[in-house]
Records
---
Amino acid sequence: MQDNFIPFHRPSIGQEEISAVQQVLESHWLTTGPVTQQFEREFADFVGCKYAVAVNSCTAALHLALEAIGIRAGDEVLVPTYTFAATAEVVVYLGATPVLCDSVAGGFNIDPVDAARKVTPRTRAIIGVHMAGEPCNLQALRDLADRNSIHLIEDAAHAIPASYCGRRIGSISEVTAFSFYATKTITTGEGGMLTTNDEVYAKRASVMRLHGISGDAWKRYTNQGSWYYEIVDAGFKANMPDLLAALGRAQLKKAETFCKRRREIADLYFRRLAGVDELEMPPVGDANVEHSWHLFILRLRSEMLTVGRNQLIQELKEGGIGTSVHFIPLHLHPYYRDRYGYRPGDLPNAEDAFARCISLPIYPDMTDAEVDRVAGAVEHFVQKNCRRVPACAS
Ligand SMILES: Cc1ncc(COP(=O)(O)O)c(C=O)c1O
């Protein structure tokens, strides 16, 4: 790897995280225990909800959320096509059908109008995803859910911390799922959290995350616990160990500082690139929302350029800059094509965004000089490949 390579992501891990993990190692209690409980309380306080249930991934949190609200075989769940595999696969785990919906024109989040068109008598829930950290239109989704007596779940894998109408994401809908995957805004390497204000959902998720064992199953090896336990349902193995919760607690303390720096970086990109006609900036949301800036997704105006997004990725890579693409819409993947019959052209707004998008590096440890180098490399690409003559993007 080049010395001056700017990776797509670099986690911000400091001495606080290292010491916290070391303390857990030295405590001899490695799996779910008191540190996980503390993390749950602190996370619930942070987002402003009643209950937080720590799990080993956002995928598990989504799975447990759908299980808790009662999704069953034969049900349909509305899911944006513009998301990661996890959002829809959890619907399939329960024998239900994910019904894929288009994005809003010009954006990445689910289009409530398209979602409304896809409601059938079998529809039981809708999952809103806050793509890149931009809160989706929760009011429109709530109205849709209420009109059709269906549940609203949020996939907030990208949205720590983000808010909608002055309320933190995680405190609003029936159940919300967060991710602490390695590239997320706060990380435990792998991990997730389910939040809810509903005691019944919280209890069900707590039991099902650890084999369907009733009560505080993890306590059975402590001096307060008992060897006796009862299995009340066929649960899953999705609990978060204290080792990871220790990392999570240290990261959560920094979440607001991290987000402030992400915003500064987004502003720097806007200042440098917003005036370049050949580029379309990411949606920032309206005055009601606060973006977490997990991702900075630029779109090329392909008709104004002689080459496309893939060439930009290649050239940035050759220049020592890592990028990514978020996401290939689910309906374009072989599984969704073959199992549900989706075809290219079915969800045009999502396909258009995907064809032209590139995610630039954005993370708290990025220096202004690195942001400047990325923006400069993008400007250089546009100047070299634009259809306008003479020199453009000046
Ligand atoms: C939108 C979205 N939902 C869910 C997930 C799954 O998160 P995890 O890896 O924690 O299961 C991801 C992961 O990248 C994601 O981007």
---
Amino acid sequence: MHDNVRDLIGDIWLSGQLGADFTAVCDTGGRVAGTDSETAAQSYLEGAARALGGEYREQTFTVTGLRSDEHGVSMVASGRELQSYPLLNCAQVDDEFEVIDLGRGTPVDFEGARDRIPGKAVLVRHEFPFSTNHVHRGVKLELARTYGAAAFLIGNNQPGAGPVSGSGGAGEPGEMPAFGLSYDATSELSTALAFGPARVRLFNRATPGEWTGRNIFVHFPGRTQEHVVLSAHIDGHGLAESAMDNGSGLATVLEVARRLGPLAADSERGLTLALFTFEEWALTGSAEYVASLNEAERSLIHCNVNVDTPVGYPRLFGLTAGHPRILELLRQASVVGGTPVHPIYAHTTNSDHANFLAAGIPAVRLIGGYNDDSAGSRLLLTAADTRHRVEPLDLKHGAIVTALVTLAAMGA
Ligand SMILES: [Zn+2]
């Protein structure tokens, strides 16, 4: 092992700043884009990014949507309140709906109930999102629209973690109201439906809003114009601290940029740290960045290393879309670090790397755990995504592996 790699691993292992950044980001709260919590995180991250010493730059853009002011879901027959949370951009509503329970809510479930769905609220289940065979909430929401549902309810599959959140659309007129329910609320509703028809009252008072998104960049030039974009998303959900998703990723990329930025000048390729926001809103921040680049600028990005939830599991996985350049980087990092980075070949669209892939730029998402629903990521988007769920060892391990992947990509 080269001395510089040994030093790099040792420096990250002993770094006090990694944990300090993680704690400071969690202290700002859930960081829903456009809220005071996100603004507080932005100002902390701006300070941390400027302190790295590279070329600091920002990109701003405008986002419109709906913000919920007051909300609730209750059983009409009993008047009982169900533990619920409006999905991001949930439409305004104050009405009663008959509910149909579609179980998981797969395409087959929807097709089988095709005649019974129009005008009803569909109840589906949240699933462990990081496996090859899961059906994403966005797909279920689209099926609900296609089959003519009037409202969308998604039940948490994790007991004791409250309702599940997530994106509920673009906040445009005519969209259906969409709520997350807790595991217990889902059981209560599902049991009632087993005995006969059941109705729920859905209430959401929402205000249309316009927000300014701000992406943060720090560039360290290399020997050539080519560079590696190391990214993490800033924003999160309102139910907890968005600690795993993605406080852990933010602390990781800051730490890696702190260690690798000074090495860029002697590396074949430079390093660009990118902190994107409005990720939870259909990956808007990174889409704005990629859209701002011309063809020549895109071709100078050797790859995107996107860090989203690198914790919650003792081993790291790379979502590679099967790109040979990325597979080679993971192999090198595994060999050099003596710790495996497992490649997943599926083309995934669950974080900012998807916008790079869509533009023809090789990209990888690094994540802790895949295809194993015991991973901490089973609790993302719930009240359980707090700092206490993050093992310091996982955070350090994720940062070391991210550094080795990025170092290999820089050709250092
Ligand atoms: Zn995320």
